[in-house]
Amino acid sequence: MRIAHLTPPSAAYLVPDPAELPGHEDVTVENVMIRVEVPLATDPARLVLKDLVYVDSALQAVADGFDGIFVNTVADYGIDLIRGTVDVPAVGAGEASVAEAVSLAPTFGIVTVWPSSTQIYYDRVLAATGAADRCRSTRFVLEETELAGLGGGAGVMAAAHDPDSSVAARVLAVARDAVDRDGAESIVLGCSCMTRLTSYLAAELPVPVVDPRATGFAATVAAARAGRTSVEANPDTVARIRAAVDVWAGMGDSVTTAWADDCGDVCATVA
């Protein structure tokens, strides 16, 4: 069974390891690269661009014969459009994490390493999953003004991937506030780049901690084992999506951003 891991080049290192799953012997995972790196979307228009480049990559995954598609970002870029366009099962890290959180406890909180300018993602995922009333809070660790000093998005991702970093300690403090002050009974890490903090946080907190990368990947494998869907996409629509991304790719990765160094799509502005 082949699983496509949709990712920009900057986050290819977050490809899941099938060995982390029980019964993984027949599962392989391969990166399918996003053709245009669109900066983190802090506005609706850029969010549309990100959705479409993920649909484009999903179409490529289908053409390449994959059995399942993993959108490894808590923002779940393009997930509904993908499901309406291809017959290969697709799962987003965000929706899978929220489902896991509500299965573990009545309420949850989202803790993100990114600034509050990324709120648009959380709002969309919570609305799509119907879990907004179960979410006690979304807490943000960093301020916008801190990003450049940490090396931009790439530097933040590296720090969020290191349990010994000062950023990790701040994530723990914010997670404690989500539990103690907001009443969250489980914690969702809003960014796949924080996967290595899961054990560290779980050892320090009195509530379960949901790792979006591991949770989303397991859900993708389960969906792929269940078989294909009955979607029949309009060939003209598919061709136009691919053609539009062809044009964007020819323009280069030049979508403007206020971020000094974008972290890549996987961050989904949630952590």
UniProtKB/TrEMBL annotation:
A Gene Ontology MF term for this entry?
A: amino-acid racemase activity
Q: Which InterPro entries would you find in this protein's record?
A: Asp/Glu/hydantoin_racemase, Hydantoin_racemase-like, Iso_Racemase_Enz_sf
- Sequence similarity: Belongs to the HyuE racemase family.
- Protein name, entry field: Hydantoin racemase
